[in-house]
Structures are given as C-alpha cells and as structure tokens.
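Hey team,

Filing this mostly as a record. A colleague (T.K.) asked me to run one chain through the structure pipeline before their review meeting, and I want the input and output archived in the tracker in case anyone asks later how it was produced. No errors, nothing strange. Just documentation.

Input sequence:
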Amino acid sequence: MSIGRFQVVPEGCRAPTPDAGRHILRVRFGQAFGTGEHVTTQACLRLLAAHLRAGERVIDLGTGSGILAMAASRLGAGRVLAVDDDPAALAVARTNLEANGLKGRVAFVLSDAAAACVHGPFDLALVNIGATTIETLLPDLARALAPRGRAILAGFLIEDEDRLLRAAAGHGLLLRARRRDRPWSAMVLSRA
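Output structure:
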C-alpha cells in the first residue's frame, strides 16, 4: 500500500522497488492494531510525515504493531518511545522493528498511556486510540508535550471532534491541522 511517503508491505509480500522519497515499512500481521489498512492509521502516517521534524522526541501511545513508531524513526526522529499496555502488542511491535532493521532505534514501555507520559517532554505524540481514551488522556498528554509540542490524535469519529477540541482547549491544546475520511477524523493539536 502506498500511503503518503510510505510503502507499507504486509508480511509474506515481496517489497517493491521503493519509489523515490518513499520509506518501506514491513508490517507483520499479529495480535496488534496498525497494519496500515485502516484509514485512521493512514491519516496518522500522512500527518506524521507533514509534522515531524528531524531529531524530535516522539511518543507513540498505544503503539500496537509499532507502525507509527517505525515511521517516525524512518523520518528521522531523534528518540522514539513506543507504549502499549498489551504485552502481545509490544511483542509484535518488536518483531516488526527487527524486520525493518530498526532494532535499537525505538524504546518500548509496557504501560498505560497516561502513566507513560511521565517520560516526557516530547515534541510529538502519536495517539490513535479512540475518543473516550483520548479525552481521558488529554491532561497527561498536555503536560508531556514540550513547548511547541504537537499531538496527532486519531481513532475517533468526525462527530467526536467538537467534544475533543473543547476538552483539548481546556488543557492549552489548539487545532493546527485535520484530516477526514468519513466517518473518521484525525487532528494535529499543539500547545497554545
């Protein structure tokens, strides 16, 4: 699958000759979300390519397969922390990183998302985990972002945008960009 600056190659498929400027991401199907097929993951990949600056500190909350952590690493992030509360998901993510030659470039933490925010500050947070979880996480996420830090939020419906934006504004996070693929939405928020 071609997704913005990435070519996602499922396990068992042969990687095509990479297009100029595209990064190959090999993804093993397993017991973890994030194979690149869902529109929320695709939106995150596109927003990540547009909003990550080389050398930045990144946290991937709810890493699942590790696809977003791998993408951040391929784009030149300085430090990437992949977090999940599911040991099976972290095992899949570690396997994917090894298959992509990225072993040692991403750190893993078995934790819930809110508790992992203490490892900040982060320049960019990746959060593709659903509206209710995101809303609950906003206070911790806002504290974990560095000045001018951004958060890419996805995994929620367009109808949840207004509620999430109101809650985010209460923590000093404002809308900077948005992608919609009905009925799904993804947003980039930054510190005010």
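Quick notes for T.K.: The first helix runs from residue 39 to 51. The chain has a mean pLDDT of 92.
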